[in-house]
Amino acid sequence: MDKKTEKYFVNTYIRKDRRERLLYELSTPKKRYEGISRFCHCSKELIDPSKIAMEGDGIDRDRGFTDFLARHNEICLVLSPENCDEDLFLPLKEAMDIASLGLDAIVIIGSCFAVVFGEPSKNGRDKFLLTEKK
Question: S-S: 88 plus which of 6, 13, 62, 78, CB 3.0-4.6 Å?
Answer without folding.
Answer: 78
